C-alpha cells in the first residue's frame, strides 16, 4: 500500500513539473497505465478546473429535462388538453368563489392559481344556453295551461340563439378586454393584465349564478323574476369587478371607472336581453286565431238598421 502511495506521489510530481514547463498542456495522470485501486484519475487543464466530464454530463441532463418540459404546439390537441385537466373539487371550488365574491378576494389568485381551465366555462355556458331555451318554451306551456286560448308551438331555434349568444359573449368580450389591458400595459408599465384564458375563465364561472336564476324565472310573478335577476346580476358583476380591480387600479381613475362601468353594463345587457327575449310577453301570433264569420241560413232575417233600403 505504501508503494502504491509512493508511485502516485511521483506521478503527481511529474505532472506538476510538466505543467510548470508548458502551462497550456493538459495531462492526465496514469494515462498509459491502469489506475490503481482506490485512486481516481483527475483531469487538470490550464484554468485549474476539475470535473469537466461531470459538468458535461450535467449539462446534457439539463438539456434533456428541458426538452421533456417543452409545451406542445398551439395547434396541437395536447396544448388544449391541459386546460381540461381539472377534477371535480377544483371546479366546485371555483364555482363557490364566483358565487361568493367579496372585496380583497381575487378570483384569479385564490382559485385559478395560474391554472385556468376551459372545462368549467364550457359546460357552464352549455348548461345556461340549454336552460334558457327550455325554460323559455316551458313558460309558454304553462301559460297555455292557464289560458287555453293561447296557441303554443315549440321554438327550437331558441337553443341556437342561446348558444351563439352565450358563447360569443364569453369569448369576444374577454378578448376585447384582454386586448385593451394589453394596450394599457404599454401606456402605463405598472398595469399587468391577466392572460386571455384567465379572463375567459373568470367570465365563464361568473355566469354560473344565472343557471338557478333562470330556472326560478318559471315562477309567474314578474316582481319576483326581476328581483332574482337583479340579485344574480349583482353577484356576477361583483365577481368580475373584484377580480379586475387589482389590474386596473394602477391606471388612471377615469380609465379604471370607465372600464369597470363598461364591464357591468355589458353584463347587465346580457341578463336583460335574455330576460326579454326568452321570457317575453306573448305576442299576437301565439294567441288563438279569431273566430271566422259563419253564413246564416237563408230563412233567418237580420234586423234592418236605420236608413237601410230594402229591395
TrEMBL record:
Gene Ontology cellular component terms for the protein in this record: Golgi membrane
Highest rank taxon of the organism: Eukaryota
Bilayer topology: Multi-pass membrane protein
UniProt feature, compositional bias: Polar residues: 25-36
Entry's Gene Ontology BP terms: vesicle-mediated transport
Cell compartment(s), UniProt: Golgi apparatus membrane; Golgi apparatus, cis-Golgi network membrane
Transmembrane stretches, start-end: 118-141, 161-181, 202-220, 226-247, 254-278
Ranges for region Disordered: 14-37
Keywords from the UniProt entry: Membrane, Transmembrane, Transmembrane helix
Domain Yip1: 99-271
GO MF annotation terms: small GTPase binding
InterPro entries named among the record's database cross-references: Yip1_dom, Yip5/YIPF1/YIPF2
Protein family according to the UniProt entry: Belongs to the YIP1 family.
Official protein name in the record: Protein YIPF
Amino acid at each position: 500500500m505504501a508503494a502504491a502511495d509512493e508511485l502516485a506521489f511521483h506521478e503527481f510530481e511529474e505532472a506538476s513539473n510538466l505543467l510548470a514547463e508548458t502551462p497550456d498542456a493538459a495531462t492526465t495522470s496514469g494515462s498509459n497505465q491502469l489506475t490503481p485501486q482506490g485512486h481516481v484519475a483527475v483531469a487538470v487543464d490550464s484554468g485549474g478546473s476539475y470535473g469537466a466530464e461531470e459538468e458535461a454530463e450535467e449539462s446534457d441532463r439539463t438539456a434533456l429535462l428541458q426538452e421533456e418540459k417543452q409545451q406542445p404546439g398551439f395547434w396541437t390537441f395536447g396544448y388544449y388538453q391541459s386546460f381540461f385537466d381539472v377534477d371535480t373539487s377544483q371546479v366546485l371550488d371555483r364555482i363557490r368563489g364566483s358565487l361568493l365574491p367579496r372585496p380583497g378576494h381575487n378570483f384569479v389568485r385564490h382559485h385559478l392559481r395560474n391554472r385556468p381551465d376551459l372545462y368549467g366555462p364550457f359546460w357552464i355556458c352549455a348548461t345556461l344556453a340549454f336552460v334558457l331555451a327550455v325554460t323559455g318554451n316551458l313558460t309558454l306551456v304553462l301559460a297555455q295551461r292557464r289560458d287555453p286560448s293561447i296557441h303554443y308551438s315549440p321554438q327550437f331555434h331558441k337553443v341556437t340563439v342561446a348558444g351563439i349568444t352565450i358563447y360569443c359573449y364569453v369569448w369576444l368580450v374577454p378578448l376585447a378586454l384582454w386586448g385593451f389591458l394589453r394596450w394599457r400595459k404599454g401606456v402605463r408599465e405598472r398595469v399587468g393584465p391577466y392572460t386571455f384564458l384567465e379572463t375567459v375563465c373568470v367570465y365563464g364561472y361568473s355566469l354560473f349564478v344565472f343557471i338557478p336564476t333562470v330556472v326560478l324565472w318559471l315562477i309567474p310573478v314578474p316582481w319576483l323574476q326581476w328581483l332574482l335577476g337583479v340579485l344574480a346580476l349583482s353577484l356576477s358583476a361583483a365577481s368580475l369587478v373584484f377580480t379586475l380591480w387589482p389590474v386596473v387600479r394602477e391606471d388612471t381613475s377615469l380609465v379604471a371607472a370607465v372600464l369597470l362601468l363598461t364591464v357591468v353594463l355589458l353584463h347587465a345587457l346580457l341578463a336583460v336581453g335574455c330576460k326579454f327575449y326568452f321570457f317575453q310577453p306573448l305576442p299576437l301570433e301565439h294567441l288563438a286565431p279569431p273566430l271566422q264569420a259563419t253564413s246564416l241560413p237563408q230563412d233567418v232575417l237580420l234586423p234592418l238598421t236605420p236608413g237601410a233600403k230594402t229591395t
